[in-house]
Here is the input.
Amino acid sequence: MKLISDIRLLLLGIWLGAACFFIGVAQVAFAVLPDHELAGAVVSRTLAIINYAGLGIGVFLILLSMLAARNTSKLWLWIERFLLLITAAACAVGQFVIGWWILLVRTQMGKPLDELAADDPLRLQFNTLHQYSEWLLLASMIAAFIAFFIIANRKFGTDTKKSSADPYDFSKEFKV
Here is the structure.
């Protein structure tokens, strides 16, 4: 079961790292590229990859949690599953609902976002949807981060009476 836990941690860590990296890519794209339309296209394609990966990894990790159900606390296992469900659901809503609405608003604009007045209803709607997208990604990342630590701190078949009281005692960890 430790191997499955390590694989789950690896997948969550990779996705969290990619999501954090995406934030930097989005900022750099708008700072470096001369056209905001081009930067928006790069960011939306990259966000789609993050959302699809978060959805897939979240569902896959929920399914893998069924294998780890034997020797673990049921409460923490259900909390972990709920957090992974939040991760997957937030990515799905961000991609399939908010992303679709943003695309619909962009097609209604007919011209680049920068050319619209600040009080234009389509621009205001785009800004609101963009804010929702950011919140969903943040909620997904926070849920995945908490789930990561729940999985990382899980005990596998250890007797709590025999284990040392010091959680940072690594003397038994590296014995061959």
Summary: The chain has one domain: 2-152. The chain has a mean pLDDT of 88. Residues 2-152 form one domain. Residues 90 and 136 are 5 Å apart (CA to CA).
